Amino acid sequence: MENAISANGISKHFGQLKAVDNVSFNVHEGEIFGLLGPNGAGKTTTIKMLTTLIPMTSGSAVVAGYGVKKSQNDVRKRIGIIFQDPSLDDELTGWENLEFHAILYKIGKQKRTDKINEVLKLVELEDKKDILIKDYSGGMKRRLEIARGLIHEPKVLFLDEPTVGLDPQTRRKIWDYIKKLNETHGTTVILTTHYIEEADYLCNRVAFVDHGKLVALDTPENLKDKLGGDVVSVQVNGKTEDFKKLFKKHAWVKTISGHDGSVDLTVKEGEKKIPEIVDIARKAGIGIGGISLHKPSLEDVFIYYTGKAIREEEAQGWRGIIRAARAKHR
Ligand SMILES: Nc1ncnc2c1ncn2[C@@H]1O[C@H](COP(=O)(O)OP(=O)(O)OP(=O)(O)O)[C@@H](O)[C@H]1O
Ligand SMILES: [Mg+2]
Q: For residue 146, how far is its CA from the centre of ligand 1 (angstroms)?
């Protein structure tokens, strides 16, 4: 498998601060790859180095076949970037913003028109193309930025927090565009996010970053599997110890813990094991009062590696704080 991105021990220091600290990873061609981590983890700084926008303090990287330090122009021609902060021209229409970008990339008139129409269709903004950006909603702006990043048919697309601050519905749409683009054009995508569900839903592989360091890297499935599997909680009506003894014999049960008449079993593919668990208990004469399944999330895995949650509310500003406060008082 070819690598679309290969980062070899890249670092960025701002004075004493190691914003990115000796990070290495490869992104395979055709992959959707996620950098997941809390505010200030070093995600944007990593993206900026890989896209030639800031120099590295040390290390090296190859993007779309070219060295980031030596062949900046070759790299730039082959990548698309969607920045974390909005970067559209408010006084131009959607179409004009796209056309300006296409001209920068020296795309001829006819191809330009075709391409702009194509990307507008992808993000469903055809009917808004002649409206000024200042009259776009936040979600529309983000979609147009994604469209703009695609005009010159990049081999590798960098998305820095593609859905931050957007409502769940718009977020889901953007996920669909990213998936569609990846599937139909084979575009390699690297995105940063602090949304667990976003990384889980979109990414073939995810790298956890924290304090400038890469702390784990794997598929979402494998990362979750490292926690031992799903947690099946069983209500066992007073026979806790018997139940625990019974399941200790089975190798597919990774861990057993019990409290207050309820026993938690960690097993792989929990939903498939539930019938078997019920059956074994019944044959041993242990009645089951209830059973529930908890799938470990990437958040659980992040906590496992870093000892802390990603803390979405911080990044979302007031919206998140208000939501957290509401949840607390419910
Ligand atoms: N130009 C700069 N000068 C000094 N410090 C910087 C500079 N750019 C970034 N930093 C610092 O580097 C660290 C990493 O910042 P970065 O923007 O890469 O984080 P991030 O993971 O993208 O966070 P967020 O989720 O908030 O976007 C932070 O502590 C930040 O303050
Ligand atoms: Mg950032």
A: 23
- Distance from the CA of 210 to the center of ligand 1, in angstroms? 12
Strands 213-218, 188-193: pairing kind: unpaired
Question: Which whole-number Å values give the CA distances from 301 to 10, 197, 218, 222, 228, in the listed order?
Answer: 25, 13, 11, 10, 11
Output the pTM of the full model.
Answer: 0.81
> What residues does each domain of the chain span?
3-222, 228-294
- Ligand with an atom nearest the CA of residue 45: 1
Ligand found nearest the CA of 50: 1
Question: What is the fold of 228-294?
Answer: Alpha-Beta Plaits (3.30.70)
Tell the CATH topology of 3-222.
Answer: Rossmann fold (3.40.50)
The per-residue pLDDT for range 81-112, each reduced to its tens digit, is 999 988 999 999 999 999 999 999 999 999 99
pLDDT one-digit tens code per residue, 60-83: 999 999 999 999 999 999 999 999
Asked whether 36 and 196 are in contact (CB, 8 A), the reply is yes
